[in-house]
Design a protein that fits this description.
alpha+beta, 4-stranded antiparallel sheet, 2 helices, 4 strands, 29% helix
Length: 79
């Protein structure tokens, strides 16, 4: 589990749309969630591991977030 300033990564995607839909699923289940995009919108080509979009939840909600994503098959690359 990666925790940065109290937020833990529960999923990682290559596109912002999928990450946003995942964050909304977490929010619909009463969990806090936010999307952290490292995409460079000026360049069309991604940069591998540097061009990721992360879905984060507060550290204390990590387990609940991971379990919800597993149940709904929305895990992405990180969990």
């Amino acid at each position: 589990m990666k925790v940065v300033e109290g937020w833990a990564e529960v999923a990682r995607f290559e596109d912002e749309l999928t990450a946003d839909m995942t964050a909304r699923a977490l929010q619909a289940a009463a969990l806090e969630a936010q999307v952290l995009s490292q995409k460079d919108h000026a360049n069309v080509v991604g940069f591998g591991g540097l061009a990721v979009v992360r879905v984060l939840v507060p550290g204390h909600q990590y387990r609940a977030g991971v379990e919800l994503l597993r149940e709904r098959d929305l895990e992405g690359d990180a969990s």
